[in-house]
Amino acid sequence: MSENNKIITRFAPSPTGFLHIGGARSALFNYIFTKQKEGKIILRIEDTDLERNKEEFTEGIYRAFEWLDLKFDENKKQSDNFPIHRKYLEKLISEGHAYISKTKEEDLLEAKKEGKTLRGEVIRFKNPNKVISFTDLIRGEVSVDTTDLGDFVIAKSLDEPVFHLSNVVDDILMGVTHIIRGEEHLANTPRQILIWEAVGERERATYAHIPLILSETREKLSKRIHGEIVSVEYYKNRGYLKDAFINFLAFLGWNPGGEREIYSLGEIIKEFNIEKVQKGGAVFNIEKLNWFNKEYIKLQSESEQLEYIKEFLPNIEKYSDEMLQKLRPVLVDRISYYAELKDMDEVGELDYYLNTPTYSNPNEIIWKKSNKENTILNLELIENILRKENNESNLDNLWEEIYKLAEEKGKGDILWPLRYALSGKDKSPDPKSLLYILDTKEALLRVENAIESLRNL
C-alpha cells in the first residue's frame, strides 16, 4: 500500500480519569483494523480540558497500553497543536464559517445567581442548517438534519479551542482516514463533519461507531456508577492476563462465528471484519471474562504460573521453592485470576499447607454416613499404607493403594476423613493433591493426630 493510500487511525482519550474498558475496546478495534490493513495508528492524548486534565491520568493511560502490549506508531498530545488550532479558528472566522458570540446579559446574570461563570464571549460555528449524510461502516447510511444543532461553540477564545474544533483539525493534520470510536460519539459526528467541510482541506474520514459496553443490568458501564471495575488497571492489578483480556474485549460486540472462542491477537487481526460488529450494546459479563482468564492460565507454562503466584501470593517467604512447585497445579486449578490467591490466604484456605491442623471439632472428620469407630479403623488402614517404606518415595503407588482401599470400603468413608485429616477443613483440595503437596511424614503425622482427636471424643 502506498503512503498516499495508507489507512491511518487514531485513538484519542482525554486524560481526565483512568482508562475505561470501553476506551480500551475502542483502541483495540482501531488497532486490529489498522494492523489488518497494514496502516498506521496514532495515540493522541486530547488534553484540551485544562481544568480537568492530570498528568497522572496520562501516565495511567500509557501504563494500561504497556500492559496490553498495544504499540502505537505515533504518540501525540493535542495541546502541542494549540497554536495551529488558533490559525484554523482565524481562518474559519475570516471565511464566515465562525464568529465571536457575545453572551446575553440576562444569561450572565442568571448564571451568577446559580454560582456559575459564563464567558462574555465565545466562538461559535455558523451552522449552515443542512442535512449531513455519511456511511458508517457499522451502522450503514446515517443522515442528520443539523438545523436543531444551532450555532455551536467551537472555542472559548482564540487560544482555547474546545473538543469539536481541536478534534477535527488534528484529524485533518494527521491524515486520519478512519475514525473508529464509541457509539456515544455518534451525536458529535454531524458537528464535526460540518467543521471538516468548512475547513475543506481534504476528503473527510470514514466513520465507524462501535456499540456501548453495558452492565449486566443493561445500563451503560460508567465510572460514576460502577467505580474502579471499569478501569483497565483494575484488571491488571487483579492478576488477569493481558491476552485473555484482549480476547474478551475483542468479543464484546464482535466474534468470528463458530464455537471456538480462544483467539490470539494475531488470529483476531486475520479474522476481524468491522462490518460484522454488532449495532446493539455489548454486555460486560465478569463471569465470561473469568472463564477466558482461566483458559489462558491453563495455557501458561509452569514457570509463568509460578512467576504470577510469587507476585500475588501473600507471605511468599513462608513457602519453599519445593512447596510452591507442588502447590502450583492445585492453586491454578482453584483460581480464575491471580488475586484470588490473596482472597484464599485471607480466609485461611492455605493454612493447611503451612500448619498442622488442630481439629477443634473432631466430629467433622467423620463421613456423614459413618461413625467414630469406623472412621478410626479406616484412618488406621490409611496410616498403615503411609508407613510402608516403598510408599515414601512413590506417591503414585501410595495413591493407588489408598484409592483401591476407597473402592473396597466406600469412597466417602476413606477419602473424606483422609482429606479432613490432611487439611483440617471441610473445603479443601482433593486428598490426592494434598498428599502430593505434603511430604509423606507430614501426611502420616496428620493422620495420627486425627485418629488421636477422634479417640479423645
Automatic annotation (TrEMBL):
<dbReference type="InterPro" id="IPR001412">
    <property type="entry name" value="aa-tRNA-synth_I_CS"/>
</dbReference>
<protein>
    <recommendedName>
        <fullName>glutamate--tRNA ligase</fullName>
        <ecNumber>6.1.1.17</ecNumber>
    </recommendedName>
</protein>
<keyword id="KW-0648">Protein biosynthesis</keyword>
<dbReference type="GO" id="GO:0000049">
    <property type="term" value="F:tRNA binding"/>
</dbReference>
<keyword id="KW-0067">ATP-binding</keyword>
<dbReference type="InterPro" id="IPR049940">
    <property type="entry name" value="GluQ/Sye"/>
</dbReference>
<dbReference type="InterPro" id="IPR000924">
    <property type="entry name" value="Glu/Gln-tRNA-synth"/>
</dbReference>
<dbReference type="InterPro" id="IPR008925">
    <property type="entry name" value="aa_tRNA-synth_I_cd-bd_sf"/>
</dbReference>
<dbReference type="Pfam" id="PF00749">
    <property type="entry name" value="tRNA-synt_1c"/>
</dbReference>
<dbReference type="Pfam" id="PF19269">
    <property type="entry name" value="Anticodon_2"/>
</dbReference>
<feature type="domain" description="Aminoacyl-tRNA synthetase class I anticodon-binding">
    <location>
        <begin position="308"/>
        <end position="451"/>
    </location>
</feature>
<dbReference type="InterPro" id="IPR014729">
    <property type="entry name" value="Rossmann-like_a/b/a_fold"/>
</dbReference>
<keyword id="KW-0547">Nucleotide-binding</keyword>
<dbReference type="InterPro" id="IPR020058">
    <property type="entry name" value="Glu/Gln-tRNA-synth_Ib_cat-dom"/>
</dbReference>
<dbReference type="InterPro" id="IPR033910">
    <property type="entry name" value="GluRS_core"/>
</dbReference>
<dbReference type="InterPro" id="IPR004527">
    <property type="entry name" value="Glu-tRNA-ligase_bac/mito"/>
</dbReference>
<dbReference type="GO" id="GO:0006424">
    <property type="term" value="P:glutamyl-tRNA aminoacylation"/>
</dbReference>
<feature type="domain" description="Glutamyl/glutaminyl-tRNA synthetase class Ib catalytic">
    <location>
        <begin position="121"/>
        <end position="291"/>
    </location>
</feature>
<keyword id="KW-0436">Ligase</keyword>
<dbReference type="GO" id="GO:0004818">
    <property type="term" value="F:glutamate-tRNA ligase activity"/>
</dbReference>
<dbReference type="InterPro" id="IPR045462">
    <property type="entry name" value="aa-tRNA-synth_I_cd-bd"/>
</dbReference>
<dbReference type="GO" id="GO:0008270">
    <property type="term" value="F:zinc ion binding"/>
</dbReference>
<comment type="similarity">
    <text>Belongs to the class-I aminoacyl-tRNA synthetase family. Glutamate--tRNA ligase type 1 subfamily.</text>
</comment>
<keyword id="KW-0030">Aminoacyl-tRNA synthetase</keyword>
<feature type="domain" description="Glutamyl/glutaminyl-tRNA synthetase class Ib catalytic">
    <location>
        <begin position="6"/>
        <end position="115"/>
    </location>
</feature>
<dbReference type="GO" id="GO:0005524">
    <property type="term" value="F:ATP binding"/>
</dbReference>
<dbReference type="InterPro" id="IPR020751">
    <property type="entry name" value="aa-tRNA-synth_I_codon-bd_sub2"/>
</dbReference>
